[in-house]
Amino acid sequence: xxxxxxxxxxLLPSVGALFLxxxxxxxxxxxTVRYVALFTSLVxxxxxxxxxxxxxxxxxxxxxxxxxxxxxxxxxxxxGVDGISILFIILTTFITPLCIISINNSIKxxxxxxxxxxxxxxxxxxxxxxSLDLFVFYLxxxxxxxxxxxxxxxxxxxxxxxxxxxxxxxxxxxxVLMLIAxxxxxxxxxxxxxxxxxxxxxxxxxxxxxWLAFFSSFAVKTPMWPVHTWLPDAHVEAPTAGSVxxxxxxxxxxxxxxxxxxxxxxxxxxxxxxxxIYTLSVIAIIFTSFIALMQEDMKKLIxxxxxxxxxxxxxxxxxxxxxxxxxxxxxxxxxxxxxxALFLCVGVVYDRMHSRLIDTYGGIVSIxxxxxxxxMLFTLAALGLPGTSGFVGEFLILMGAFKDNxxxxxxxxxxxIIGAAYMLWLYKRVVFGKLINSELKKMVDLDKSxxxxxxxxxxxxxxxxxxxxxxxxxxxxxxxxxxxxxxxxIMNK
Amino acid sequence: MIxxxxxxxxxxxSLSIMFLLILGVFKKNSSKLIQNTSLIVLLITAAITFNExxxxxxxxxxxxxxxxDYFSSFMKIVTLIASFLVLSISYNYIKIFKISKIEYxxxxxSSVLGMMVMISSNDLIVFYMGLELQSLALYVLASFNRDQxxxxxxxxxxxxxxxxxxxxxxxGCSLIYGFAGSTNFDIIATxxxxxxxxxxxxxxxILVGLAFKISAVPFHMWAPDVYEGSPTSVTLFxxxxxxxxxxxxxxxxxxxPFLNLIDQWQMILVFISIASMLxxxxxxxGQTNLKRLIxxxxxxxxxxxxxxxxxxxxxxxxxxxxxxxIYILMNLGLFSCLLMLKRNDEYYEEIGDLSGLSKNHPLxxxxxxxxLFSLAGIPPLAGFFAKFYIFKSVxxxxxxxxxxxxxxxxxxxxxxxxxxxKIMYFDKEKEKFDTDHSLWLRFSLIFSTLLILIYFIFPSQxxxxxxxxxxx
Lengths: 493, 472
Prior knowledge:
The complex is a heterodimer of chains A (493) and B (472). Chain A is mainly alpha-helical and 493 residues long. Helix content of chain A is 75%, strand content 3%. Chain A is built from 19 helices and two strands. In chain A, strand 1 (63-71) and strand 2 form a beta hairpin. The model of chain A has no long low-confidence stretch (mean pLDDT 85). With 472 residues, chain B is mostly helical. Chain B has one domain. In chain B, 74% of the residues lie in helices and 2% in strands. Chain B contains 20 helices and four strands. In chain B, the strands form two sheets. A two-stranded antiparallel sheet of chain B has the order 1-2. The chains are: A mainly alpha (493), B mainly alpha (472). The A-B interface holds A 69-72, 74, 113, 138-140, 142-143, 145-146, 149-150, 153-154, 160-161, 164-165, 168-169, 172-173, 176-177, 179-180, 183-184, 186-187 and B 362, 373, 378-380, 384, 388, 391-392, 395-396, 400, 403-404, 407-408, 410-411, 414-415, 418, 421-422, 425-426, 456, 459-460, 463-464.
């Protein structure tokens, strides 16, 4: 089949965005604009599902590969997917339409520009997950900064300028070192083609520095302790749809990068630096969980819980065990769905009360029951209750960790308990308790579109929770081969 | 017999300048006519250069004192087209400021002539002649709005400092002449050896003079004041056109007479480059005037272009040329935006004046957004590729320190570009600006923005054109 399905996936949202720029719309409601954006992202979603159906799960080879000369004698535009990347693409195309539906009332001014930014963002994110050339990867990875900067800065809350700058400069600082590393790889190996680099391998004596350069970029993006501080700021100030994009998709780029590049390209260095990752992950899990416990702002609490969850992800990835990496990926997908849902839940009450402080709420269970039920589901998914996707991820990660390092696994398990503590406490304070604030009585329950979005997110969370094979089947072979190659490289050394 | 057709562009340009001068003196109120004729002259000169000299083999003329090759022809064409665009978009500005005198386009033409001589020079004397011709015209241009205190100050400052640097440069030339016994670049190359300390002094003096002309740190002090004080139309010219010629001469100097002494000048160049990148990035943070900010940003960009030169490889030279070409494009767009900030015949140049621009002028601010992100070097815009080529050639020579400092200073520089974007997009809107812009101004803004935006689709084209430049 020669139809360039991946390039279409990348290009389609951008084309939609370009189209949005030119269509006329009524100033008041801008219905047309919204439908065009929604239509584009839905088409993209179905295209990605089609991709998943066509995808051959029995091999770890890259499929749907497109290889074109881009800069002569220097860089090829090369994209392709394997079991690992296809899930992230689907996550991206799944979350984007939900984001677009969710901005019903929250974004009042400059809706068109907002939708353009979201669609362009989608293009870049899909590009990140399917690029098979380091340079192309970097291009998409960095380019995502522009729309996100604007989303936080233009449509964000009170301290949005500070947050937008912090987000941009932190991530840029991390990434420029990766650019040097990519250029160095080109200079060392004569190519930036990931597949060729897998075959050739990179000389062990360079690996450590290169690994660190990539790490600096991914650590900021993940975000790992101690460079996580941009995330709570960015989340708190971003509009709901922005937070959803940020938590659900942007944070996954780094985890994906760790698997694809850190493990794949620099096995020897990964082996050396595993203790570093373990330490930082464990600190992230325990430390940020405690911080989350203390938060008074709901969004901030969820943001810190994201850091803790991403700590589990990095821990799982660097166990280099089949279960660990599978768990890491499922945890990322699950976190993508759950954190998106939680941010949307916060967005729902924020739209009504214009407050994100936990104190404002309390006892809303009798006023908005539908909301409370769904919110509970997502809270339980976030703390990893069996039957939800969060459990599968954390369980597999801890299993992998126990195989590799007992102590780390034990400490991480404590993190699970604290995680349950802050999530349940949050839920208790917001939903249960006495109804003190009389303003709350005016709140209306979920409207149709909100209910639709949250159920859309709830279904896959439950499906993955009960039947994780749907994901594991796709990633199993790719991860198996990744680990095989990894161990072979370590042996050879 | 010398083949004069190769210097026909220069001859044509000088004859046109004289003709226009006579025309301007004898015909009353002819400033508009002369402006338009100068534009045509620039285009014709570019066409002649393209036709006569672009594709010929490397040729020496006039006792080897003038060199015509692909590199010089390419740079001349870039200079001519850039000055054409600069002159065409600034017409409204000079009309409103009542400085649309006949001398204005003629001075620009003579400055361009000087640059063309510089670009083709293969001899210290010819080089100096071209340099002085362009500088003298620029002194006058800087103080062209003579009723304004700042403009006169800019002209005077530029004149005094530039004369000083020319003096240093001449002193360096005489030292070199003393050791090599000739002013010809090729002969100097064969005569020099690195054992003479005084020779190093000569090189340093020449580098100082050249660094001054392209406003590299630590010889940058004039740039912010001159950029701010000069009329914007002249600042635009300053920021774009002389950089091309000066960079060409820089390349020729370093890689023809002094290539064997690379150990002596490489460290100097690395230092100048790092200092320019860092100072340009850090000093720009505190600026409130857009023109001053552009001055510092251009200092920092010159630092990147010099980083390519410091590598001592052909790749490095090519990456510098690519960088300066893309830099011209970005600055053209930036100044087009600046020239659009006009309300009731008054131009605004403070950063605060941009406040909330995106509400009133969505397209203008979108273009400015793209240009600024490109200047900051964020992919997938053209500015990123320019930086990428530079760093690629720098890393190839294992100059990691330079690469890391350069990339870190892009992060610092990103801050002040973001600040402008913040003011445009996040702040409250002010009054609307005029929208009656000239066709050329619109054209140059759209042209440069689109090229910056879609450069990533066809990155090979520019490389192909520039990869034919082979100096070493």
